[in-house]
Amino acid sequence: xxxxxxxxxxxxxxxxxxxxxPFWVDTHVNPPFRKSSSGSIVDSTGATVKCYKEVPKVLEKxxxxxxxxxxxxxxxxxxxxxxxxxxxxxxxxFTYKEIYPGKKTTHFANFRKQSGIQYKDMLFFDxxxxxxxxxxxxxxxxxLVQDGVTEKVVENGLKEYAQCC
Length: 165
What we know:
The protein is α/β, with parallel strands linked by helices. The chain has helices at 55-64, 78-87, 104-115, 129-138, 151-164, and strands at 11-14, 34-35, 41-42, 68-73, 94-99, 122-126, 141-144. It has a single domain, classed as HAD superfamily/HAD-like (Rossmann fold).
């Protein structure tokens, strides 16, 4: 029986706003965040804050499969974004976090410097075309996310990565 070699990215990076959760953390919700007595995550007004439905399962599976994960966000609400990553229980998944305003190319230059992983070995998911375009220009396989990360979106991204690299 022949073994099929599948090329896998060494680092998978996700944007946050409208990629892992359905809002902009700096304008649509009100930090600080906390767990309510019922266990749900709420903002300072008591409004419930949720991520996209399939994200926890996707992150868990990728980590189980041995992928190194990172997040890159241009938000100015750094503390709130970090708080949500902790409250959602995602900190254990992300080896690298680049969360601050500026171009995504800066975030990825830092990933490369910290990890030693080259751009061609990275896979990126984001909802904004400008970020996809910028990173494709650097050689990062970049996937435009329409309605949040799902198992299917990630599966298709991994297939696209395997075909191009």
